[in-house]
Specification:
Number of domains: 3
Number of helices: 17
Strand content: 5-15%
Number of strands: 8
Structural class: alpha/beta
Strand order of the largest sheet: 2-1-3-4
Distance between the termini: 30 Å
C-alpha cells in the first residue's frame, strides 16, 4: 500500500473515532445536551485515540496484507478494538487525575459504534481500490528477476490498487541500468508532458516491500542514497539511548540480581557471557549477555531453539529474552544503540562478508532490536543473512526517530507474541 493510501486509512480512522464519540454522546445525552459532555470528553478521549491508533499499528492494520475483505481481517480488527478498550480502561482508572473520567457505558457504546463504522469504512475503501476507483495502471520495464516477485505480489494483493498494463499506463517503473541508455531515456522523457509518472525499480520495490533489492544495488546508489552522519538525529538518538539505558539499569537492578543468583546456583560457569562482536566502523567490542549455555560445550555458530547446550535457566532466559538485559550496559557505554542492525559475532561477520555490500551495515551502531529483527527471523544461513541485509540497508537509508519509535512498538508486540 502506498503511503498516500495508508494516510487515507489513518485519517479515516481518526475521523471515525471522533464521529463515534459525538454519536455516543448524542445517544447518551440527547441531541440538545451533548455539547457540554463533549467538551469534557474531547481532551481525554483525544489521548486515548492516540493509543488506539498505535494499537492498530501494532496489529498491522495499516499493512497491505490486512487491507482486504476477509473474516481474518474482521477478526484482527475486533481483537485490536478489544485490546484498545482494555487499554482505555487501564488508562482511565490508573490515571483518574489526568483523564478526570471513568466511563463505562459510554466506552462500551463508543467501541460498538466505532467497530461497526470502521469495518464499513475499510470495506468501502477496499471496494473502491479493488474495483478500479483508485486503480493505478502500472507498466514495469526491465529484465530483472525481482520484476516477477513484484508482479506476483501485486496480483495477489489487488487491494494495493495497481493494475498491470503494457500500454496506457499511469505509472512506468524502469530498471536502473536503462537510465544509461540515451535513446530509452529520451523516449521516457517525452512521456512526462503526458503526466505519466516514472519511478525507479529499486524505489518502487522499496515502497512495496519496505526493504531494498540487494541484487539491483550498485555503489552509485549508496553514494546517492545513504547518509553516513545526521547531526540532529545522531545527537538525539545518543541522548535517548543514554537516558533510557540509565533508567532501565536502575529499574531492572533487582531483577538482574535475582537472575544472577539463579544462574550461579544452577550451573557452573560465569554469570555474564562475554563475546566479541562487530560494532560501528567494524570496530570490535565485548557484548554482555546472561549466560544461557553450559560451559565448554562444542556446537555450531547458530543456536537452535532446542539446543542441548542450553541450561534450564538459560531456556527460560532465552524464551523471555531476559538474557539480553546486560546489553543495556553496552548501550549505556555507547557501543550499541537500542535500535540498529544486529551485532554479529566476528566469525559470522567474516562468513557474511561474501554478501555484497554487507559492510554497509557497520556504518551505524548495532542495536538491541532493529528493522530487520522485527521483519525477519534470526538468520541461520548466508542466504537468510542476505535477506536480513535488505532490511538493514532500508533502515540505514530511512532511519529517523519516528521509524525508531515504530520499531520499538513492533518489538514490544514481538515480545508479547513470542511469549504466548
Amino acid at each position: 500500500m502506498t503511503k498516500f493510501k495508508t494516510a487515507i486509512i489513518i485519517l479515516g480512522d481518526i475521523t471515525i473515532l471522533y464521529l463515534s464519540l459525538i454519536l455516543t454522546l448524542i445517544i447518551r445525552y440527547g441531541q440538545d445536551s451533548f455539547k457540554e459532555p463533549l467538551a469534557a470528553h474531547l481532551k481525554p478521549f483525544s489521548l486515548i485515540f492516540l493509543v488506539w491508533i498505535l494499537i492498530f499499528y501494532l496489529f498491522d492494520l495499516y499493512k497491505d496484507r490486512q487491507f482486504r475483505i476477509s473474516f481474518e481481517t474482521i477478526r484482527i480488527l475486533i481483537l485490536a478494538i478489544s485490546t484498545s478498550v482494555i487499554a482505555s480502561v487501564i488508562f482511565f482508572y490508573l490515571f483518574p487525575s489526568l483523564f478526570k473520567l471513568t466511563p463505562k457505558t459510554n466506552l462500551a457504546i463508543f467501541a460498538l459504534i466505532f467497530g461497526i463504522s470502521d469495518i464499513l469504512w475499510r470495506f468501502i475503501l477496499i471496494k473502491i481500490y479493488v474495483s478500479g476507483g483508485f486503480k493505478n495502471r502500472l507498466q514495469i520495464i526491465g529484465d530483472s528477476p525481482i520484476i516477477n516477485e513484484i508482479v506476483d505480489y501485486l496480483k495477489n494483493n489487488p487491494q494495493l490498487g495497481y493494475d498491470l498494463k503494457n500500454n496506457q499506463a499511469d505509472t512506468i517503473v524502469i530498471q536502473s541500468h536503462l537510465k544509461k541508455n540515451p535513446e530509452f531515456i529520451k523516449t521516457i522523457y517525452q512521456l512526462l508532458p503526458k503526466k505519466i509518472a516514472v519511478i525507479d525499480l529499486i524505489t518502487f520495490y522499496e515502497t512495496i516491500f519496505q526493504k531494498v533489492p540487494l541484487e539491483e544495488l550498485e555503489e552509485g546508489w549508496f553514494i546517492e542514497k545513504i547518509t553516513t552522519y545526521r547531526n540532529f538525529y545522531d545527537a538525539a538518538k545518543r541522548t535517548i539511548d543514554f537516558c533510557l539505558a540509565l533508567f532501565l539499569n536502575i529499574i531492572f537492578l533487582p531483577l538482574i540480581l535475582i537472575i544472577a543468583l539463579l544462574i550461579k546456583s544452577t550451573s557452573k560457569g560465569p554469570i555474564i557471557f562475554k563475546q566479541e562482536r562487530t560494532g560501528v566502523d567494524n570496530k570490535p567490542f565485548i557484548l554482555f549477555k546472561f549466560r544461557t549455555m553450559k560451559i565448554n560445550e562444542p556446537g555450531p555458530l547458530w543456536t537452535d531453539k532446542n539446543d542441548k547446550r542450553l541450561t534450564r535457566i538459560g531456556k527460560i532466559l532465552r524464551y523471555t529474552h531476559l538474557d539480553e538485559l546486560p546489553q543495556v550496559y553496552n548501550i549505556f557505554k555507547g557501543e550499541m544503540s537500542f535500535i540498529g542492525p544486529r551485532a554479529e559475532r566476528k566469525e559470522l561477520t567474516e562468513l557474511y562478508s561474501q554478501i555484497p555490500y554487507y559492510e554497509i551495515r557497520h556504518i551505524i551502531k548495532p542495536g538491541l532490536t532493529g528493522w530487520a529483527q522485527v521483519n525477519y527471523k534470526p538468520s541461520a544461513s548466508v542466504k537468510e543473512a542476505a535477506e536480513k541485509l535488505q532490511y538493514d540497508i532500508y533502515y540505514i537509508k530511512n532511519r529517523s526517530l519516528i521509524l525508531d519509535f515504530l520499531i520499538l512498538l513492533k518489538t514490544i508486540k514481538y515480545l508479547f507474541v513470542s511469549l504466548k
